[in-house]
Design brief:
Elements: E1 3-12, E2 17-19, H1 20-24, H2 31-38, E3 42-44, H3 52-67, E4 76-80, H4 91-99, E5 106-109, H5 115-128, E6 134-142, H6 152-155, E7 160-170, E8 175-182, E9 190-191, E10 209-210, H7 212-232, E11 243-246, H8 251-260, H9 272-275, H10 282-292, E12 301-308, E13 312-319
Parallel strand pairs: 4-5, 4-6, 11-12
Antiparallel strand pairs: 1-7, 2-3, 6-7, 8-13, 9-10, 12-13
Helix pairs in contact: 3-4, 7-8
Bound molecules: oxa(dethia)-CoA.
The site of oxa(dethia)-CoA has 19 residues, from helix 2, helix 6, helix 7 and strand 12.
Length: about 325
Amino acid sequence: MRYSRIVATGHYLPERVLTNDELERMVETSDAWIRARTGIRQRHIAAPTESVAGMGERASRMALETAGLAAEDIDLIVMGTTTPDQVFPNSAVIMQERLGVAGIPAFSLEAACSGFIYALAVADNFIRAGSAGRVLVVGAEKMSSIVDWNDRSTCVLFGDGAGAVILEHTQTPGILDTRLHADGRYKDLLQFPSGIASSKARIAEDALQMKGSEVFRVAVAKLGEEIVETLARHDLDGNAVDWLVPHQANARIISAIARRLDLPMERVVLTVGEHGNTSSASVPLALDLAIRDGRIQRGDLLLLEAFGGGFTWGSALVRY
Ligand code: UT7
C-alpha cells in the first residue's frame, strides 16, 4: 500500500503585530471584549508589499530546510488560499516561480478557512494514487486585504500568515484519514460577495461579511460531529488523540470541540491568541509551532480540523 506522511513543516508570520489596544483606537471595541469573546490578543498584518505567494514561499523554504530537501525534490504544489494575489496565475504558480521549480504542477484551491485541510486531502490522494511522490502543501492568507477595517464585528478577528507541510510517500500510514464536507445552503452566513464573474461589480467598500453568532453555532455543531465520526471510523475516541490541532477562529469554539472529545486543553494547540484567525494558514501555522517547540513528537496521533465560509469543513487524522 502507498500512503503519505508529514516530513517537515514551516511557517511565516509578517513582522507587523496589531494589538487589541491599537484596535481600540480604530473601532469601538475593547481588549476585554476581544479577549473574552475570541481569545485573541494580537494578530500579524502583512505589509502592503507582502504577497500571499511571498508568504507561502517563506513558509515553504523553512519546511524544505527542516527536511533537508531542495525545492527541486518537490513534484507537486497545492495551496489553500482565499486571498489569492491575482485571479491567475494562481498563487501556487506564482510561488512556484519564486521557488525556482518550473515545470511541476502547481494549483491553489479555495475552501475559505478549510483551505489547508482540503489541500492536504488532495495532496494525500495524489500520493496514494501514485501521481506524486513529494508534495508541498501550503495555507497562505492575507486576510487583512479583505476585511473592512471599520467593521468591528469582523476586523478584530483576522490575521495574515502562511504555513507549509511537505508530504512524502511511505509504506506505513502517516495521514490515516481525511474527510471533507461542504454545504452551500449556508453561503450567506460568511462570504466575500463580489467576484470576477459575478453580476456585482467589485466596489472599494466590498469586504468580508459574517453573521458571527450563527457561524459559531453551526461551526460547533458540524465540527463536533465531524471529529467524533472521524475517530469512530478508526475505533478511536478522544483518549487516543495526543494533540488536537484545530482551525483557530475562536478559543470558545476550540474549547467546545475539545470538550466534545473529553480532551483536556493541555492537549490542544492554541494559537488564536497570537495569530487571530488566519483562515487557510491557521492549521499549518499551529502545527508547525507545536512541532518546533517540541510539544508534538514523532509517533503522536494528531487530529486536524477546520471550518469556513461555504460552509466548508473537514478533518485529518495523522500519525506524525
Ligand atoms: O473561520 C471561519 C469560521 N468563523 C468562525 O468560526 C467565527 C464564528 N463566530 C464567532 O467567533 C463569534 O460569533 C464572534 C467572535 C464573531 C462574535 O462573538 P459573539 O459572542 O457571537 O457576539 P455577537 O456577534 O452575538 O455580538 C454580541 C455583541 C453585539 O452587541 P449587542 O447587539 O449585544 O449590543 C455586538 O454588536 O457584541 C457586539 N460586538 C462587539 N463589541 C465590541 C461585536 N463585535 C464587537 C467588538 N467589540 N469587536
